[in-house]
Amino acid sequence: MVDGITPWGGNIDDPRSDAKKVAAFDPLSLHANFLDDPYPTYKLLRELDPVHRCPDGSYFLTRYDDLAEVYKGADFSSDKAREFGPKYGTDSPLYQHHTTSLVFNDPPLHTRVRSLLSPAFTPRALRDLETDLVALIERLLDAAEEKGHFDLISDYASAIPVEVVGNMLGVPHADRGPLREWSLAILGALEPVTPPQVLERGNNAVAAFAEYLSNLIDDRRKNPDQYADDVMARLIASSPDGDNLREVELIQNSIFILNAGHETTTNLIGNGVAALFENPDAFGKLKKIPDLIDTAVEEFLRFESSNQLGNRRVTRDTIVGGIEMPEGTYIHLCIGAANRDPAQFPDPELLDIERRPNRHLAFAAGAHACAGMSLARLEGRIAIKHLVERFPKLSRDGLYTRGGRARFRGFLSYPVRVNSEWRCTQVC
User: Fold this and answer.
1) Which burial class, exposed, middle or buried, applies to 173 when counting CB atoms under 10 A from its CB (0-12, 13-18, 19+)?
2) DSSP state of 99
3) Are 264 and 372 in contact (CB under 8 A)?
4) Under 8 Å between Cβ of 370 and 257
5) Which of 386, 229, 222, 406 is nearest to 309 (CA)?
């Protein structure tokens, strides 16, 4: 607390000076206004206190160069056992999942799993996938055209990665219904503050998904000829050096593939289209010059990063952003702030779909740079390009609902109409 006032997290009605607002910032106590629009908060932190010491002794970084240094440095760990034990309980499904999956691990597990996944994301593998991806997107757009209106998230943005990841893991189409809800529940438990009901949903989702995968893997081992040579097959098979994944590693990293593949792509598509609605000049330019889709997608990733926050722990005494940090210090990496740092990006608050260069950190960097970034880009490019080309008069068709999360920025629903202009008659 500062001057007896509750810690600040972006309340636009806060009467205090900017300096006091920044001093009071606590990622464990965020105002609803922050979740709706965190960027004014990020700007103040970046300008006034870019290496912000939080009440619990951790640091919140908002400058691009500081994040890049941490991502590429050797003195920082992604292992979260120390943090997740008190958060989830060491005997919980969430703890087992998040301490076993690729993203929250260091070598050697990180190296082993990543090497098994990498063949799925080679240029050749993506070329092979593209034809089926285009066909899927056209089917979804056909259905939307027939109705005349649809939900951008549930009917389109989330449906694409669920099908793609479902194919990668060999999940039968009839079994894919729960995948999105499982993913939302598991990732929702990664928020800085997790109420008991959120933890319960997350634990139930991990347990249910793990049980399903255990049965699927068992069937694949018994009947390998009935399944495709997909990512799941590579995870099940021996690695080149014979260092197989343990059963728990296999199951939990399969869950991770769904979570990572689903969330990033869903938010990329939803955030990108929403940004076009809010920036009609950019929307018009993309309609006129469809070949701008490559740079447009990179700009969507920068402007409204799907993943807003990352974390690392200092493994030995070091200096970050001019601040001495002893071994064990916990660091919050604010990707959303770094991607709007004017020291790296001219006019960072401007959506510029022709921006070059655009070295954003939406997929992190260094050894933990997202393994599936090429796939996410491919899905985003094709999904947004085909949507804009099919429906040049696409417009909002009502009020949207944001995800309400600090770590992952996106929408839960976003109603759109394919062929008419929408006029808001309420407070939007």
Assistant:
1) exposed
2) T
3) yes
4) no
5) 406
Helix (H) or strand (E) holding 319: strand 318-320
By DSSP bridging, strand 323-325 and strand 401-402 are unpaired
User: Measuring CA to CA, which residue among 294, 411, 426, 296 is closest to residue 351?
Assistant: 296
Quick one: pLDDT at residue 67?
98
Instruction: Report residue 417's pLDDT band, with 50, 70 and 90 as the boundaries.
Output: very high
Helices and strands: H and E segment counts in the chain? 17, 12
Largest CA distance in the chain: 68
The string of DSSP letters for 257-268 reads: HHHHHHHHHHHH
Contact between residue 332 and residue 309 where contact means Cβ atoms under 8 Å apart:
yes
Quick one: tokens of 293? Answer: 């889709």
Look at 403 and 420; give whichever has higher pLDDT: 403
3-state secondary structure 209-238: HHHHHHHHHHHHHHCHHHCCCCHHHHHHCC
For residues 292, 267, 362, 122, the Cα torsion angle rounded to the nearest 10 degrees is -70
Could you report the per-residue pLDDT of 326-338, keeping only the tens digit for each?
999 999 999 999 9
For the chain, the straight-line distance linking the first and the last C-alpha, in angstroms and rounded, comes to 33
Cis bond before residue 50 (omega within 30° of 0): no
Return the domain boundaries, the chain: 38-417
Could you tell me the strand order of the sheet in which 51-53 lies? 51-53, 59-61, 330-334, 309-314, 76-77
**Which residue shows structure tokens 């004014």?**
40
Provide the CATH number for the domain formed by 38-417 in this structure.
1.10.630.10
Q: What is the pLDDT of residue 9?
A: 62
Please tell me the distance from the alpha carbon of residue 269 to that of residue 280, in angstroms, as a whole number.
17
**Which pLDDT band, with edges at 50, 70 and 90, does 236 fall under?**
confident
Interhelix angle for 373-390 vs 293-303, to 10°?
A: 110
Alpha-carbon torsion angle 218, 176, 383, 378, nearest 10? -10
